[in-house]
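2024-03-11 09:14:02 DEBUG pipeline.ingest accepted 1 chain
2024-03-11 09:14:02 DEBUG pipeline.ingest length=449
2024-03-11 09:14:03 DEBUG pipeline.predict start
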Amino acid sequence: MVERPRGIRRLTRQRFLLMSAGAGAGFVLAGCGGGGPQNNPAVQGQGGSGGGTEYTGPTVELAFWNGFTGGDGPFMRDLVDQFSAEHENIQVSMSTQEWEDYYESVPAAVRGGSGPDVGIMHSDQLGTNAARGVILPLDSVAESLGLEESDFAPEVWNAGIYNGQRFGIPLDMHPLALYYNKTLLEQAGLDPNSPPQTRDDYEAALEELKSSGIQGSWVSPFPFTGTLQFESLLWQFGGDLYNEDVTRATFNSDAGVEALTWMVDLVQNDYSPSDVAQDAEFIAFQNGENALHWNGIWQLNALKEVEDLDLGVAPLPRIGSEDAAWSGSHNFVIMQTSDQDRIDAAQVFINWISQQSIEWARAGQIPARASVRESQEFAELQEQSTIAEQVPYVRFVPAVPGIGDVQPESFDQAVNEAVLLQKDPKAALDEAAQRADQILEENREKYEV
């Protein structure tokens, strides 16, 4: 089974014509009316019963929903069970469903009064859910817990802010990374312990691999992993997806064209097949058919279990002028509720899991909390700590309302058309940017922002 970045929908070709890293279409179930989080009295003065880190109120049972249905699920369930065992007055009931179903069901459940108390959402989903009034602002939660930017990587901490308010407490980061097959590198006369980390070295390695009959770096025309690779390259070449206030697409800049052209050149120069099917690049890497593979940290545990795969991991190579890597992030959120006791208990739960997130790192994640990331225990997780070298320069999709609707109809298609050699990269990106601008405008009206 192919693991996927949490919160990003698997798209068939029909649905393709995602991102998380996010899926946004499901929020039509929530509706725009009703009192937003600013109007909820429960959000005022959170943490009153125990200063944020302890809960002294009556016994409560928290409903905790998430989409951890893959190999990471058991790790989170163990943490939940441990928390409940240590807190007699807070019992946590964890429910999971596929992320796409989760993002459709949560808004409707919250509106109907049957939703969870606390949940997980990806950083690019926070703005949409905040604008819908599904989740509460957490500034006072962060304050009562004493959480500050210095406790986290700045980029992931700031990714939890929408419209000047905090709506997410980050749990982790899950960036793209470079996986490599040491055996194939050695067969091509390359150092199996020194993967290429610059453009010159990467392209030279591809040529050596090609000379040895090995297609070195397969390029996917699909969001997994083609779009994530494009986004990373766009940022590496100094570009960005949108302008500063996210009112206009800028991924068709010179940097975007250069990024997509580099991907297309891998195909045209026979370093990659010309028509890679969905997930074929991952399957080929498992089977020892390609040497260099761009994919997320969420694939780490699955690849480590593959027999006869001499696996190596490294940060993404710097192909452009600067280091950059796409990343997603799981954030804790508290749902709209008028029950102050549950809010107080939820923040104790959030804080405890965050402090214990070394166990979550074993599931194939990078802890957002600096104290955990800087611990000796994390350093001993060799692959995770290697991928974590990218933390200073990971990049996130902006958390504006409806942003998950933009990508599938714009640069996902551009990457698909260009990598399949159906359109010139610039033409594909220019057309996609026009579609993106239209969707962004529609979203501003839809969400009244």
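2024-03-11 09:14:41 DEBUG pipeline.report The chain has 19 helices and 13 strands.
2024-03-11 09:14:41 DEBUG pipeline.predict end
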